[in-house]
Specification:
Structural class: alpha+beta
Helix content: 40-55%
Distance between the termini: 18 Å
Largest sheet: 4 strands, antiparallel
Number of strands: 4
Number of helices: 5
Strand order of the largest sheet: 2-3-1-4
Radius of gyration: 15 Å
Shape: globular
């Protein structure tokens, strides 16, 4: 099932700098998820000054429990960059799914 994960950064001093320090671990985690087929799309949330203040991810997991296991090991959560995470079922039109190779065949039928 597809889920939208909306992650909000903390507001404490140094959060952005900590984000940049931890970014390589976060990106490695994302690359692993892409290889496994669970990460489909990601984008940044910017604050009023143009600094990253969170992210939006579209992920594919069998269950909410799988998402929770992933989040328990997410570097941005472990190091308290993300202080609030929302998880929502994500419904998309077949036209969007057809752009993703894994779902193209299902979207057409």
């Amino acid at each position: 099932m597809l889920y939208a994960v909306i992650a909000h950064d903390g507001t404490g001093p140094g959060t952005f700098e900590r984000r940049m320090e931890i970014r390589p671990d976060h990106m490695a985690n994302g690359e692993k998820m892409m290889r496994e087929g669970s990460f489909l799309f990601g984008g940044a949330i910017l604050d009023g000054t143009g600094k990253m203040s969170g992210g939006v991810l579209i992920v594919d997991f069998e269950s909410r429990e799988e998402i929770d296991r992933w989040l328990e090991n997410e570097p941005y959560i472990i190091h308290k960059v993300w202080d609030r995470v929302e998880v929502h079922p994500f419904l998309v039109p077949p036209q969007f799914l057809s752009l993703l190779p894994k779902y193209a065949e299902q979207a057409i039928s």
